[in-house]
Write a structure and sequence with these properties.
This protein has three helices and 18 strands. It has helices at about 5-25, 45-50, 220-255; strands at about 35-45, 65-75, 80-85, 90-95, 100, 105-110, 115, 125, 130, 145-150, 155-160, 165-170, 175, 185, 190, 200, 205-210, 210-215. The chain has a five-stranded antiparallel sheet, with no helix packed on it. A three-stranded antiparallel sheet has the order 10-11-12, with no helix packed on it. The chain has a two-stranded antiparallel sheet with strand order 1-2. A hairpin with a 5-residue loop joins strand 7 and strand 8. Helix 1 (about 5-25) packs antiparallel against helix 3 (about 220-255).
């Protein structure tokens, strides 16, 4: 393939990937605890250089880059703003760390604290129904009719509806992953990481009852990024058409001789 056509085709493909990432960010601007993703690109060497045979680089192409490539999709784990809901089962995390939830077979990490109590009196994540895990590795059982009182250290108590006295129940399993690159996103707000990468969260992680962490997506910023990406994609497509037209003219001129 001609060098220019190849570069333009790769450019259009990468911009399409970036558009997909930005569109997903915008779609989740209102999703609690959603962390925005960034598509990371880089420029690689020409294939002949990678293979160790720079002498095979076509004349005139020396010093030119090989092509742009998609390196990874990076998740920005910065703290999202907290919004007060006043709901007893809305719980936000302030600082680095995660709740631990399970579907019974697999464990997940999440910062989404939209909890509810299921038919078995277990505290679960409301969207997935996954059970919340306490610091003993057990589900949190909520006595019928009681309300929960949650402290900043993650301690959970059930408030007796008659006496109003708190009864200690459990404590959230709060975990921290130092190397966030080891987190693998599962859906919008769930993550998995090797157990060796997890450790108990430190005192800089606080639990806030009656609050929800908001998405880190800034809609205006993402819309500007979408416009720039759309223009870059269009520019690459125009370059492809222009090069095809030029190549067609050249072939006609050569063929007419």
């Amino acid at each position: 393939m001609l060098y220019g056509l190849y570069q333009s085709a790769v450019g259009a493909d990468l911009q399409a990937l970036k558009m997909e990432t930005v569109s997903n960010n915008i779609a989740n601007a209102g999703t609690s605890t959603f962390k925005r993703d960034l598509a990371i690109f880089a420029v690689r060497q020409q294939q002949a250089e990678i293979d160790g045979h720079p002498e095979h680089i076509p004349p005139g192409m020396e010093g030119h880059p090989g092509s742009a490539i998609a390196v990874d999709t990076f998740t920005d784990f910065s703290q999202g703003p907290l919004a007060e809901t006043g709901a007893a089962l809305d719980v936000a995390l302030l600082g680095p760390g995660f709740f631990k939830v399970t579907d019974g077979e697999n464990d997940f990490l999440t910062r989404r604290g939209t909890f509810t109590v299921n038919a078995d009196s277990r505290l679960v994540e409301s969207d997935t129904g996954y059970e919340v895990v306490d610091d003993r590795g057990e589900p949190v059982i909520v006595p019928p009719g009681s309300t929960l009182q949650i402290l900043e250290d993650g301690s959970i108590s059930a408030v007796d509806p008659v006496t109003g006295l708190p009864l200690p129940l459990a404590k959230f399993e709060l975990l921290q992953v130092d190397d966030l690159n080891q987190l693998e996103k599962q859906g919008d707000s769930l993550y998995v990481a090797p157990e060796s990468a997890q450790r108990l969260a430190g005192p800089d992680l606080r639990v806030r009852q009656g609050y929800l962490e908001q998405s880190t997506v800034k809609p205006v910023h993402e819309m500007l990024s979408m416009i720039q990406t759309s223009r870059a994609f269009e520019a690459n497509m125009n370059l492809i058409q222009h090069q095809e037209h030029t190549l067609g003219q050249l072939l006609q001129a050569v063929g007419g001789r």
